[in-house]
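tool=predict chain=A
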Amino acid sequence: MARWIFFTDLDGTLLDHYTYSWQPAHPALRQLRLRGCPLVVCTSKTRAEVIPLREELSLTDPFVAENGGALYIPRNYFPFALPTALVESGFQVLELGQRYPKLVQALEEAAETSGVCVRGFSQMSDKEVAQHCHLTRAAAKRARQREYDEPFLIEKGTPRQKERFFRWLQQRGLRWREGSRFLHLMGDNDKGVAVAKLVELYRQLYTEVRTVGLGDSPNDLDFLQVVDLPVLVQKFDSSYDERVRQKLRHARLARGAGPVGWNETVLAILHEAA
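tool=predict ok
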């Protein structure tokens, strides 16, 4: 039988958009554990944010942080060597993205050159991030421990200035994606690149692999396009992101927002696969 592997976004998908609660997804999380199905978190959040959440959810599988900036694999998770990996705090780390200081510098130069006014996490205080994201001050501090991805807002700029801004970034080999709250600047990486890399590793481990991806925003499109079964989760207002829906017409639509829809859909997929 095929080994089913699940990849999931966090905010607005496994976690509630406002409360960040995962509790409605508890039944499906339990079934994934009982059936031995890997659950890979694939998020724009930082390593500092994901590690305590993994412990809270009792997850032991790899995770993708900062929009594919790095892939974190627990040591000895795969029974073969990963020659290019760095070893840090119990993880083998595959760096796929651009280091944070260079991204911050590029964002500043793009804004200055184009005339656009931007505000990134590097310019925000813990308090400001907490207010934007409905986080505690401690959680906001973890969110600001960026390594490969700079979330930012465009506060002012004409359409022509914005066009120059994004063109400047593109000409330097940088990418950006739209998340549920911020735009994200990154190097030549995305969630899809990281997921595809990890699927290659799983295929070395298992004879047959089937992959499921769950997300809710354009920021998830890259990895939803590389899995066998993409799932689009309802947003907090019970709508589906039309941009993702147009590009993934074959995606399964979760009946419910956030962890409610996540739970119902994962249970249904597991039942169908049994």
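The domain at 3-97+190-273 is CATH 3.40.50.1000 (Rossmann fold). The chain has ten helices and 13 strands.
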